[in-house]
Amino acid sequence: MTAHAAILAPDSLTVVAPARGRPPVGLLVLPGLALLVLGLFLPLGQVLWMSLNPPEPGVIAPVAELTLANYARLMRSDFYLGIVVRTLWLSALTTLLTAVFGMVLGLSVWRARPSVRGMLLVMILAPLLVSIVARTYGWVVLLGDKGALNSVLMALGLTDEPLRIMYTQPAVLIGLVHVFLPFMVLSLLGALDRIDPSLTEAAATLGASRWHVFRHVILPLSVPGLASGTIIVFSLSMSSYVTPALMGGSRSGLMTTFIYQQFSVTMNWHFGATMVAVLLAATLALLLAVVGWSRWYTRQWSLAR
């Protein structure tokens, strides 16, 4: 009866909805937040704390005795700065090569027929089903002094002695590109799949060459995927240990192998923590730079349209 009255005379009646408390949706975040704090922020905080301790193995200093001596030692040494620069350069080169090869593979998958696209995706993603150690050992067998590559070159008479490929920076670069290439391809495919095919068709209809279509249509629209792939590959390359250790040896001269030596061999945890802090700062700096550049480029391209 009251329902009919409310419908017939809405101005004379006021329907009050029953008060209900909001569901505790925020409580669902607490387990993940607690895991993030315990598994990431607390260990990182401890590493940063150790880097501010005196450069004496086994000494944990109170707050009043914290020092920047470890950072000063790093900045004053050409040897340690060389390790940092070498790691940054190798990671940047790995990112650049994976971006080039990833764009080629991504465009091939994007333009392929559905049946061929599935096969290409399986071929690109299949290496992710194998551990990094197994994939890296495959390159060790291939590029070693008695590996398949040197055996073929010597059998063809192109060289009299095995080429020194393993335990060099080019070998580490080959391994890193191979390991992290699928991540770049996946990031680019996510951006390419969001491009409206009618845009490329319209550009081609108006007489644009394939290069101009790629330069002025595909590349600008794939910048978000390129930026995310750059962040992923560069971060993983900076922190990679298995591939540099197996293909570059203990003398690869990269930050990860040096950090391992400081923590496990010389037991100088404080200086190792300093290198970890520098590695983290360099990675975060690149992340912010790439995100800023991506937003700026996308904004400029939108204004130019």
Overall description:
With 305 residues, the protein is an all-alpha fold. The protein has a single domain, classed as MetI-like (MetI-like fold). Helix content is 72%, strand content 0%. The chain is built from 14 helices and no strands. It has helices at residues 2-8, 29-51, 69-76, 78-111, 114-125, 132-143, 148-155, 169-192, 197-205, 210-221, 223-239, 242-248, 255-264, 269-304. The radius of gyration is 27 Å and the shape is globular. One of its GO terms (cellular component) is plasma membrane. Pfam families: BPD_transp_1. It is a multi-pass membrane protein.
In short:
With 305 residues, the protein is mainly α. The chain has helices at 2-8, 29-51, 69-76, 78-111, 114-125, 132-143, 148-155, 169-192, 197-205, 210-221, 223-239, 242-248, 255-264, 269-304.
Shape: globular
CATH architecture: Orthogonal Bundle
The H-level CATH homologous superfamily, spelled out, is: MetI-like
The helix content, as a percent range, equals: over 70%
Low-confidence stretches are: 1-10
Mean pLDDT: 84
Count of individual helical segments: 14
Number of separate domains:
1
Specify Rg, calculated over alpha carbons.
27 Å
Key attributes of the depicted protein:
14 helices, transmembrane, mainly alpha, disordered N terminus, 305 residues, 72% helix, membrane, MetI-like fold, 0% strand
Note the topology.
Elements: H1 2-8, H2 29-51, H3 69-76, H4 78-111, H5 114-125, H6 132-143, H7 148-155, H8 169-192, H9 197-205, H10 210-221, H11 223-239, H12 242-248, H13 255-264, H14 269-304
Helix pairs in contact: 2-14, 4-5, 4-8, 4-11, 6-8, 6-12, 8-11, 8-12, 9-10, 11-14, 13-14
